[in-house]
From TrEMBL:
Transmembrane segments: none
UniProt-listed InterPro entries: Thioredoxin, Thioredoxin-like_sf, Thioredoxin_CS, Thioredoxin_domain
Site entry (Contributes to redox potential value), positions: G32, Y33
The name this protein goes by in its record: Thioredoxin
Domain of life: Bacteria
Taxonomic source organism: Veillonella tobetsuensis
GO molecular function list: protein-disulfide reductase activity
Active site per UniProt: C31 (nucleophile), C34 (nucleophile)
Disulfide bonds, paired cysteine numbers: C31-C34
Family under the similarity heading: Belongs to the thioredoxin family.
Keywords for this protein: Disulfide bond, Electron transport, Redox-active center, Transport
SUPFAM superfamilies on file: Thioredoxin-like
Length: 106
């Protein structure tokens, strides 16, 4: 799978307007758990390609988007369905827990 798209604040609304399930990974390069979760997130994105949209947001570079979505801890995975937040997972998670939370929104 190719590297995940880095979402910018200006693209956020367009992404949600696509509908379906979207997962945003809020991370930062200095965050150890974020760095450890990135390959897991990318693996899930590869397995669920075509079923959901997966993007990442560097919270340091896009602080207004992090504030808008009330991201206070990194990593935070915000799950949307049809443009609405339906779930969020915070911190280092086993792959199955994160993937199960995403798949339950299909």
């Amino acid at each position: 799978m190719s590297e995940l798209k880095e979402l910018k604040t200006a693209e956020y609304q367009d992404l949600l307007n696509q509908g379906g399930v979207t997962v945003i990974d809020f991370w930062a390069p200095w965050c150890g758990y974020c760095v450890r979760m990135m390959p897991v997130f990318e693996e899930i994105a590869g397995e669920l390609e075509g079923k959901a949209n997966f993007v990442k947001v560097n919270a340091d570079e896009e602080p207004s988007l992090a504030r808008e979505l009330q991201v206070e801890v990194l990593p935070t995975f915000v799950i949307f369905k049809d443009g609405e937040v339906v779930d969020r997972k915070i911190g280092f998670l086993p792959k199955g827990d994160l993937q199960g939370a995403i798949e339950s929104k299909f």
